[in-house]
Amino acid sequence: MTRLPIRLAAAALLFTAVACAPAGSPDPAPPPDASAEACAAAGGRLQPAGALNTPTCIVTYADAGRPCTDGDDCQGDCRVPYGTRVEGPVSGVCQADSNPYGCRTNVENGRIDPASVLCAD
Description:
The protein is α+β, with helices and mostly antiparallel strands.
């Protein structure tokens, strides 16, 4: 008997998430652990990535390399070379693909986002 309220709550939450998605935003890349079929359907390819060569779904972004000043300007993140240190305004380029591994420094609102300076293996 308690399943119906849980299902209704889940449906309402899903509807809210879909309804609140920014208009015109690109479809997000599939999760890195997507199946080969789901990855191919999203235009990606499974390939070894990271220090452990984990099979990862990687989608190449159409706007790769385009100048940007914020992640909202790109399908992925707006980035500068890892370790870039700039106190004032900065511009970057849109990341090439959805590979979650490696070192990165993101740009948000024309400034380096200190929380994004990291390496993921």
